[in-house]
């Protein structure tokens, strides 16, 4: 024995059994479950809203009462491929992009306002 071993006793660690690690399938299950939850809570509802908005814009017709994204309310007087002319008062017309139309109002809503 050498001198350091006499002064300091060596520590002998017990070798513990390695904990059982989960299988590869279990490790992949958590990220897949997270992606599925994100799809059903965030992505799918957004896609549904976009589809409804697109359908609303396709049904848009002359004489419809609409509200734009900026809050301007008026009646559709002309429809183009990508622009819509909205009459907001007598002899006052505004040209907006189709995508800026946020809502189609029931007929007669603007007259009662």
Commentary on this structure:
The protein is an alpha+beta fold and 113 residues long. The chain folds into two domains: 27-59; 61-113, SH3 type barrels (Roll), CATH 2.30.30.60. Helix content is 40%, strand content 26%. It contains three helices and five strands. The protein has helices at 3-7, 24-59, 109-112; strands spanning 65-68, 73-79, 83-89, 92-97, 101-105. Strands 4-3-2-1-5 form a five-stranded antiparallel beta sheet, covered by helices on one side. A hairpin with a 3-residue loop joins strand 2 and strand 3 (83-89). The chain is rod-shaped and about 105 Å long. The termini are far apart. The mean pLDDT is 86.
What is the quaternary state of this protein? single chain
The number of helices is 3
Averaged pLDDT: 86
CATH fold descriptor of the largest domain:
SH3 type barrels
Major β-sheet profile: 5 strands, antiparallel
What is the helix fraction of residues, given as a range?
25-40%
The strand count comes to 5
List the secondary-structure elements in sequence, H or E: HHEEEEEH
**Strand percent estimate:** 25-35%
The assigned structural class equals alpha+beta
The radius of gyration over CA amounts to 34 Å
Number of domains: 2
CATH class of the largest domain: Mainly Beta
Give the strand line-up of the largest sheet: 4-3-2-1-5
Shape: rod-shaped
Q: CATH architecture of the largest domain, please? A: Roll
Cα(first) to Cα(last) distance is 102 Å
- Which residues sit in consecutive blocks of at least 5 with pLDDT less than 50? none
């Amino acid at each position: 024995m050498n001198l350091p071993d006499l002064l300091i006793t060596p520590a002998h660690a017990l070798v513990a059994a390695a904990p059982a690690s989960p299988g590869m399938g279990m490790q992949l299950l958590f990220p897949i479950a997270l992606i599925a939850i994100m799809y059903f809570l965030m992505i799918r509802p957004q896609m549904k809203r976009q589809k409804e908005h697109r359908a609303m814009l396709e049904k848009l017709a002359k004489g419809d009462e609409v509200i734009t994204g900026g809050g301007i309310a008026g009646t559709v007087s002309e429809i183009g491929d990508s622009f819509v002319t909205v009459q907001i008062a007598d002899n006052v017309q505004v040209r907006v992009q189709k995508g800026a139309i946020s809502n189609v109002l029931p007929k007669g809503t603007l007259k009662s306002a």
